[in-house]
Input
Amino acid sequence: MRRRDEVLVGTTIIASLAAIIFGALYLSKASLWTSTEIRVARFRTTGGLGVGAPVNLRGVRVGRVNVIRLGEQNLVEVDLQINQDAVASGILPERPGVIAASASLFGEWEARLIDLDLPPDDANVLADLSLVIESSDDGAWPGATLPDIGELTAQASRIAGNITDISDRVTTVLDDEAVGELQQSISDFANTVQNINALAEQQRDVFGTVSQNVERTSDLLADAAMRLQLTLARVDSATSEGELSTIMANTATISTDAAAMLGDLGSIVGVVRANEATIGRLFAGADTVLAKLETGRGTAGLLLSDSALYQEATLAITELRSLIADIQANPRKYFKFSVF
Amino acid sequence: MICFRDLHKRFGEKHVLNGFSLEVPEGETTVIIGYSGSGKSVALKHVVGLLEPDHGEVEVDGHVVHDLPRAELMQLRGSVGFVFQFAALFDSMTVLENIALGLKHQGVSDREIEQRVRESLEVVDLDGAEQRFPAELSGGMRKRVGIARAIALRPRYLLYDEPTTGLDPVTSSVINALMVRTRERLGVTAIVVTHDMRSAYSVGDRIAMLFKGQVRQVGTVDQIQRTHDPIVRQFIEGQPDASGDPEVPEFEETIA
Amino acid sequence: MFDVLRSMRDMDVWVPRTVVQMRRLGVQSVPIALFIATFTGIVLALLSSYSFSGAVPLYFVGTLIGKTIMMELAPVLTGLALAGRIGANIAAELGTMRVTEQVDALETLAFNPLSFLVVPRVLAATVMVPLVVALAMAVGVTSGWITAISLLDLTTPEFLKGLRLFYEFKDIWFGLVKSASFGLGIAAIGSFKGLRTGGGAEGVGRATTEAVVISASMILVLDAFWAVILL
Output
């Protein structure tokens, strides 16, 4: 009886202690059983990077952010704990750099290790990286920060406003004589839209850093912009009032902006796969307008009297604008599936 | 020698002991009789310090019980065996463990314990019941185990609280005989609290009648049997309401 | 209370009896504690996934289960169950011993009832309740994990990620410290109520009820107390 008591009590105590010790060690394993090495990285700014944030190499976790402190020359020093086995196996890049970027919409940031020999094609990032490289010579890894989605959408919103502006002005300069030429030009514009559609199609599969997208997008955009320029030139010659040349000049600068914007937008489109329908509808709307113009419904008089046509075009732009504003205001609505 | 001096004890409104004084001579058995709830058990519990008097004192071997420091009180308790009304055996222990418990606590060796347990059970005619649990025993057997537990300590004093209450007449006789035998064998001084006159006559050397918190009369068995005190007469003869005022108190429950 | 501490000197009296109480109060409480923990884990997993509903990533189920079970539910639910089990057991047993004069008998045998009856129980409960709670924590988290991977669309690594996300060792010891105080309180209240019993079977019933009710209230108050002091 008493013997059995002792055995039972002993067993329970041992089981419980085992549960406590095993549980405690198991749960804190990440920082307890893995030996790490410290590497220092320097940033101009660390954005939202926090202590404990993961350090990733090509998407795989290899360490964590240990300390963040303000350093000399207006730089920030970040101690990265890199797992010993990652260091030992030599998988780290020859010339490592660090990009701090948001990992999700919940404000979690991560530090991505990159190879400086294959730098990201983003002007801001490159500028930051070279700034750090120039100002430090102790082998600390240079770092740069990617803007988060809030900044991108703000830019997109501004540009969308500009586009609306143009389209308004184009509407005012169209007169009887221009219409004939316009029909031709419209078909060019249709091509442009198709290009943009193709762009969206491509972007759907691209989910990488913003900078990669920018390059490809801007090529396509340059093309599109050229066509738009052509279109507007024809319209200009048709009206021969010279008014359009002013718009042209504006368009030239705006299209540069648009190139950058659409690049950013492209990456958003990639992210927004779930909500692609809205965007599709937008482009479809534009297509309908152009199709109507192109088939002409015969004469210029018909075209001009069809006020719905212009309204629809304006509406399409407005819709784009409100979409972007909405993305900006409620990012979760659009990003919840793809981010996690 | 045990000596009660002007003992007062209240439970709430009830003045249970009201100047109780009694001397218990060495080597004799003194029986305290009285109505149920008249404070007999209360007086007994003062002897081992289970209760503290409101006024007055109990002296055992010249020491005032409630003034004793804890260690000496424990020592005193070791020399006093207490047999409870319902035996108060420890339910979770066997008869053997019940009897051995106090011995172990006194540091008696295992072999001696075994021997004393066997002896004590022999005295109460319960040889061989060592491994049984209290729940398996009859009321009379439990009381006998209670007595065995008390005498195993080889006490100098034995206090019996209603030893025959709730037992049939035959079993009562067995217990009475046992109490007599115990005194003859061990030569202890005993106080027996009872309202069973048959028992009082057969075990007592002296009888004291407790009434209204005081000793009404004390004397040898003979003296009590021939008493002229109407209250004592009424009690020992069991007549209901002869004097018109027996005042049977009713707070047995609160004391138990 | 001081008497209890003083009576701890009688080592030879309470040490052997403590093991018995450890089995009765501790080991025999394991099944009920694990039963509660199992179902708590299941419910927590389902409830949390329900309330996250897409807005919060599902792996936070692991975080929520780990934190709430270890810091609050395992200690408090087990504590409440044991307030019933242990508290009633102690109060009823000691109460019966009191009304049948067994406590008096102990005293006449020159025992200190505190060393003999109270210290083993209080000590056993203080030591064993945290250990039982530790098992409940392990089982609760495990049942939450099994529920998460079988009923929810969650993988083991995701669950572990959530579990470890904000984990600190404090989560565990906070729960265990709480549990020890619960055990101490339950046993002390049960003993006190038991030894103070008067008035026969009815008194035992009353003492038992009071012990359980007071212990349960005490657990909730202590719970808040530790949250204020330690968090």
Remarks:
- Confidence is low (pLDDT under 50) at residues 250-256 of chain B.
- Chain B is about 40% helix and 25% strand.
